[in-house]
């Protein structure tokens, strides 16, 4: 009988294997899959803008909930169709601390995927802005989002970035454990919906909002986009996924396993010595 879900320990072991496989992807794969993932998240972001456009003036809470119910389609596409998403790939640090991959492997993946994600988000933003999808109330909505993000404090964005990627990487973590498509869809949906409702900062989603606003006439430079938001959001996302989730589960399940083996070996030697 096949299991419908893996145990936390099994997920941790699988996450290490996934990290190893990601470290071996070719440059072409990283670029193409990164562009796909960036565009998938952008689709979710545009969907959020459209769903919330009219409701936000009536009931902001309901508007955010409805938008949050649509946004997770981005991660669903990444998980089920295939893609390399920077924020999800922060989980590669679990393979790093287990010494299955090297730091240069992680940095190579993160760097290429990050900018490929940016290209994917930028392409969708440009098309949606130039075809009129982002106009009227939708444009007003993205302008409002960007204005708020640009005025936020560095530390605020950093902290929101940490909490955001804790939820995103928990969503990815749960999809590792789910053994069928329906399980992966629901595993993706709930944590992502929650981070959107709470208003946390996801660097790849923010790429969509900023470029969509810029292509729609909002006065902002790429330098301002990175310095005022993407850099602190990215650092926070790395801490949330690459440190809190990855290392938390590593020391909860994998390191404990290794320590148990050492203790067992010591007990065996002591028994044989007697």
List keywords for this structure.
single chain, mainly alpha, 81% helix, globular, disordered C terminus
Description:
- By secondary structure, the chain is mostly helical.
- Helices cover 81% and strands 0% of the residues.
- The chain contains 12 helices and no strands.
- The chain starts with 7 loop residues before the first helix and ends with a helix.
Structure, briefly:
This protein has helices at 8-23, 27-52, 60-70, 73-81, 86-89, 93-97, 103-130, 137-151, 154-177, 181-198, 203-215, 222-273. It has 274 residues and is mostly helical.
Q: Please, how many helices?
A: 12
Secondary-structure-based class equals mainly alpha
- Report the C-alpha radius of gyration, rounded: 20 Å
Poorly predicted runs are 262-274
Set down the secondary structure blueprint.
Elements: H1 8-23, H2 27-52, H3 60-70, H4 73-81, H5 86-89, H6 93-97, H7 103-130, H8 137-151, H9 154-177, H10 181-198, H11 203-215, H12 222-273
């Amino acid at each position: 009988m096949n299991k419908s879900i893996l145990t936390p320990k099994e997920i941790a072991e699988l996450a290490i294997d996934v990290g190893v496989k990601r470290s071996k992807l070719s440059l072409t794969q990283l670029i193409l899959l990164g562009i796909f993932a960036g565009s998938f998240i952008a689709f979710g972001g545009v969907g959020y803008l459209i769903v919330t456009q009219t409701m936000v003036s009536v009931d902001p809470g309901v508007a955010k909930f409805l938008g949050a119910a649509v946004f997770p389609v981005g991660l669903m596409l990444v998980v089920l169709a295939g893609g390399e998403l920077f924020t999800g790939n922060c989980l590669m640090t679990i393979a790093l601390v287990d010494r299955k991959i090297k730091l240069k492997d992680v940095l190579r993946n993160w760097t290429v995927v990050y900018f490929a994600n940016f290209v994917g988000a930028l392409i969708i933003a440009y098309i949606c802005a130039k075809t009129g999808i982002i106009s009227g109330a939708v444009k007003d909505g993205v302008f409002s989002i960007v204005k708020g993000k640009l005025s936020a404090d560095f530390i605020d964005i950093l902290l929101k970035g940490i909490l955001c990627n804790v939820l995103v990487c928990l969503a990815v973590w749960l999809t590792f454990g789910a053994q069928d498509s329906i399980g992966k869809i629901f595993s993706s949906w709930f944590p992502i919906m929650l981070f959107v409702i709470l208003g946390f900062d996801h660097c790849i989603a923010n790429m969509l909002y900023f470029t969509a606003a810029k292509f729609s006439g909002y006065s902002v430079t790429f330098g301002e986009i990175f310095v005022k938001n993407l850099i602190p959001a990215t650092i926070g996302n790395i801490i949330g996924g690459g440190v809190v989730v990855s290392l938390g589960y590593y020391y909860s399940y994998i390191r404990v396993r290794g320590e148990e083996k050492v203790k067992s070996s010591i007990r065996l030697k002591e028994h044989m010595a007697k």
